[in-house]
Amino acid sequence: MRFTTLGTGTVSLAAARSCAGYLLEADGLQLLIDCGSGITRRLAERGAGWQTISHVALTHFHIDHHGDLPTLIFAWKYGFLPPRSDPVEIIGPVGTLALLDRLAAAYGDWMRAPGFPLVVREITPSDVLELPGDVTLTCLPVPHTPESVAYSVVRHGRRVVFTGDTGPSADLAAWARGCDLLVAECSLPTEMSIPEHLTPEQCGELAAGAQPKHLALTHFYPPVEQVDIRALVARSYSGPVTLAHDGWYFDFGAM
Ligand SMILES: [Zn+2]
Ligand SMILES: [Zn+2]
């Protein structure tokens, strides 16, 4: 299993960071988590992998987390020969079906019926989704927008928790406890702090509660890159920390 940070940026557009997008690869599963602007480009830079994505999971409905989804579906429909026949499953919190219907109203029926099977599955916190490759997906509501969720991916005893966009949450720290990799948003410096996002200090507090084996930070607005993120995280958390860049990945060994 491998987790790749395809896009570590935000809607504050930055040269080196695409909007949000993450790839979870396991034998038989190519799961794209969020698909913000620039993620189709990041996928293309990696070669043909964009063609084999089998699942997409959205954390919430801000456009920097799904802006490239219509482009990706259009690419699957018209972008390679022979045309795609493999199914795709789009997973997201309640409201995902309505979001895709609105996108289809804007762009065309191909958004929902692209010529290959496209299933939309809304996930609630009580659901345990069994995905190909012995992967289990669950979610937890997080304080960002009403629909926002964090995701947990488990395979063969290894666990990744991705916070999505979130503010501070003791529930999230408890839910993530003991995971192998915690991928947390790290949006804003303390002087710009808002309840819907995390500061580096709050990332440290989250990790102190969750005690992951490895912490990776992402979703950086440019101002947070002006502060010493590592030092601020280290006030509460002393474990290994990565400040992720587009294309960074964490390998869990056997795929
Ligand atoms: Zn965001
Ligand atoms: Zn957001």
Distance between the termini: 4 Å
Mean of residue pLDDT? 97
Largest sheet: 7 strands, mixed
SSE string, helices as H and strands as E: EEEHEHEHEEEEEHEHEHEE
Counting DSSP E segments of at least 2 residues, the number of strands comes to 14
Describe the strand arrangement of the main beta sheet, using strand numbers.
6-5-4-3-2-1-14
Helix content: 10-25%
Bound molecules: zinc ion
Keywords, separated by commas or semicolons:
single chain; 255 residues; seven-stranded mixed sheet; 14 strands; 20% helix; binds zinc ion
Q: How would you characterize this protein structure?
A:
The protein has 6 helices and 14 strands. With 255 residues, the protein is an alpha/beta fold. The N and C termini lie close together (4 Å). Bound molecules: zinc ion (2 copies).
Q: Topology of this protein?
A:
Blueprint: E1 2-7, E2 21-26, E3 29-35, H1 39-45, E4 55-57, H2 69-78, E5 88-92, H3 96-107, E6 118-122, E7 129-131, E8 135-141, E9 149-155, E10 158-162, H4 170-175, E11 181-185, H5 200-210, E12 214-218, H6 229-234, E13 241-243, E14 248-251
Parallel strand pairs: 3-4, 4-5, 5-6, 10-11, 11-12, 12-13
Antiparallel strand pairs: 1-2, 1-14, 2-3, 7-8, 8-9, 9-10
Bound molecules: zinc ion (2 copies).
The site of one zinc ion (ZN) has 4 residues, from loops.
